[in-house]
Amino acid sequence: MAGPQPLSNILEITPYKGGQKLESGWKLSSNENPLGCSPKAQEAAIEAAKSLHLYPDGGATKLREAIAGKYGIDAERIICGAGSDEIFQLLGRAYLQPGDEILQSQHGFLVYRLVAQQSGAETISAPETDLRTDVDALLERITPRTKIVFLANPNNPTGSYIPYEEVKRLHAEIPENVLLVLDGAYAEYVRHNDYSAGMDLAGEMPNVLVTRTFSKIHGLAALRLGWAYGPASVIDALNRTRGPFNVSAVAQAAGIAAIADDTFQAQSIDHNIAELERVRSAIDKLGFETFTSVGNFFLVRFEQRDGRRSTDADAFLRARGIVVRDVNVYGLPDYLRISIGTKPANDDVIATFEAFAAR
Fold first, then answer.
1. Which tens digit of pLDDT belongs to each residue from 10-34?
2. Neighbouring residues of 323: CB distance < 8 A, sequence distance ≥ 6
C-alpha cells in the first residue's frame, strides 16, 4: 500500500552533507574556528540556558540592535536566522517557483542549488576563471527567468574573491527585478583594500541583500546563527516566510556577546593569517599545487595518477587522524579543501603531507 508521495522535485535532491569527523584526531573539514568561540559568548549562552522554559524573542530585537550598532546599519532592515542557510531557505520560499532560475558561479556554495531544487527552480552556473568568479560570464547567463544571483564573496570552497568594483559592476548590469545576494560568510577574514562585503549596496539599492554568519569568525557553528541586511521590502518578505521563533534564546544571547568581543575576533584573524600562510606555503614547497585563499581554508590540487590522486591523499590523511573536505560534489574531483586548525593540528597536516610526498 503506497503512502503519501513527496513532490517530484524534492526526490531529486541529494541532501547536503557537512564535513565528516573522526572519533579522535583533527577535524579540518568544516572551516570551523580553531580557537573556539568568545569566552564572553560562552558565558552568555550558559546564562541564557537557565531559562530554557521560556520562548525566545521572536524578532531577535536585541541581537539585531547589536548587529546594527556594530556595522552602523538600520536594525529594522536586519533579519536573523538559524544560520545564513536558513536565510537562503527563506529566499527560496519568498522569491522562487517552478520555472525560475538562480544564477551562481561555477563552484558556488552547494546550498544555493539545494534551495533552488526545493522550489522547483533551475540552477545556472557560470564558468569561473582560475577558480575565481567571472562577472562577464555571470552577466551573459542572465535570462528573463533569473530571479536571484548568488555571489559568495569570498567563495567557498575556492577561497577566492572578486574586488568590490567588480561586485558593483555586476549589480549595475543586472535587471532591477533580479535580487543580488552577497554571501559574506568569510568576510571578516579578508584583509585587502579592494574588498567590501557590500553593506553600502544593500543599504542603498532595492535589489541587494547581504548575508552573514556567526559560524566562522565568531565560532558559534553549533548554535546555528546568521543574519541578513537589505531593503525593507526584502526583509519584510523574509519575515513573512520565517518561523515565529526561528532563533533560540541561547543563540541570541551568545550572538550579542560575540559580536561585541573585538578582542576574540582579532585573535581569530591574526591566527588565520599566520597559519594559513605557514601551512599553504609548506605544502606548496612539497610540490603540491595550492591556491591562494582569503578564507580560513584553502584548496590543494592533486595529480591524476595512481597513488597521487586526491582520493589517495584523503585516505592517507584520514589514516593518520586528519579529516579534510572532499570537494568532488563541487565539480573539483582532483582537489581537497583543508581548514586552518590549531597550530598542533596544522603541524600534523604539514608532517602528513611530507610523508605522503615521500612515498
1. 766 666 566 566 666 899 999 999 9
2. 19, 20, 21, 22, 25, 26, 27, 28, 29, 317
